[in-house]
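Thread: quick sanity check before group meeting

JM: Hey all, I'm pulling together slides for Thursday and realized we never actually wrote out the predicted structure for the chain we discussed last week. Dropping the sequence here so it's in one place. If anyone has concerns about the input, flag it before I start.
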Amino acid sequence: MNILDKIIFDKQREVVLKKSIIPASQLESSVFFGRETISLSQKLRTSSTGIIAEHKRRSPSKSVINHSFTVEEVVKGYENAGACGISVLTDGKYFGGSLDDLLLARASVNIPLLRKEFIVDEYQILEAKAYGADLILLIAAVLTREEIKSLSEFAKKLGLEVLLEVHNQEELEKSIMPSLDMIGVNNRNLKTFEVSLDFSKQLASQIPDDFVKVSESGISSIEAISELRPYGYNGFLIGENFMKTDNAGEAATEFIRKLK
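JM (edit): ok, ran it. Output follows.
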């Protein structure tokens, strides 16, 4: 069993437990459930930088990245830096995140928030809406075409945008459908954790222009973004590059300043 299989196995058990503790009706009565969401796809289409900055404490491949910042410090720093949106890791066991991180982020900034999570159930999409997210991530590697369709359509009904993550041609081909807003190519192989920008380059021409193209993982330099822009990418998700510094907001500010 590879790391991704382990994460999904644990996530399915976690969702069953959560459903038994907090009913869907409680999530639907949350103060944020009725709020109008902010479109990340629109922001990316008109941005000159396209940076989606990430709040990420640790990962299975890197262990601890940074535990010294508060969520508020990080997300306010990202917003002030000019990020188009913020990705907030909410998985606890493998990434050290939580839904409370998403809630704190929502209370602190007024730009689009992505709930970065391993979504396997509609219940998690209700959680995303209830805790202030504007969009969700769906990972093609762990979902069937039917699951991608039902989960993405459910998200759209709630007013959430959908970023679908793919790693290869096969995942892309099974996933393209109207209920997606953005297609992200993860440059990290989730089974081996190797990183290469070639993933984004190879798949770029296969992604229809109806979708905003996002490149994820392994982007640590201005040069990498300059390399990917000719392939039609409007969004660039950057996490560890900012989080591993002494001040994530300042690192993002400097990076975005150089991009402009």
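AS: nice. The mean pLDDT is 94. The CA atoms of residues 158 and 237 lie 24 Å apart.
JM: adding both to the slides.
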